[in-house]
Amino acid sequence: MHIVFITAYDAHAVAAFERGAVDYVLKPYRSERLGESVRCVRERPGHAQPVLDSVLRELAAAVRPRDYLRWINASSGQELRLITVDEVLLLPGRCQVHPGHDG
């Protein structure tokens, strides 16, 4: 079995090749690029193959978990309160949401 990574993320390319990947294709890809990858796989029939399960476990461990919203700044007039997302049961229809901007 040969492994070709097709992904929108370039951050793990080196790790993929260190684990035996034959190719690493970034999205969005062109059909010509995918054809190059297929040719690359066909040219390496005797290449030693990594064990897929161990490669996937190692890559999953290397991926950072996504940062999800943990706090909500709630204000009414001059009053401001930090609320954990776990405390929210319902946001009423008249609630206005203003996303923050990382600067």
End-to-end separation in angstroms reads: 45 Å
User: Largest sheet, described in full?
Assistant: 2 strands, parallel
Strand content: 15-25%
Find the structural class using helix and strand composition: alpha+beta
**Total number of helices:** 3
- Overall average residue pLDDT: 77
Query: What's the total number of strands?
Result: 4
Order of helices and strands: EHEHHEE
Percent range of helical residues: 25-40%
What does this structure look like?
This protein has a two-stranded parallel ribbon with strand order 1-2. A two-stranded antiparallel sheet has the order 3-4. The model has no long low-confidence stretch (mean pLDDT 77). Helices cover 28% and strands 19% of the residues. The protein has a domain at 4-62. It has helices at 13-18, 31-42, 52-62, and strands at 4-7, 23-26, 71-76, 79-84. It contains three helices and four strands. The chain has 103 residues and is of the alpha+beta class.
Question: Could you give a short description of this structure?
Answer:
This protein has 103 residues and is of the alpha+beta class. Helix content is 28%, strand content 19%.
SSE blueprint and pairings:
Layout (H helix, E strand, L loop, with lengths): L3 E4 L5 H6 L4 E4 L4 H12 L9 H11 L8 E6 L2 E6 L19
Parallel strand pairs: 1-2
Antiparallel strand pairs: 3-4
Tags for this entry?
alpha+beta, two-stranded parallel sheet, two-stranded antiparallel ribbon, 4 strands
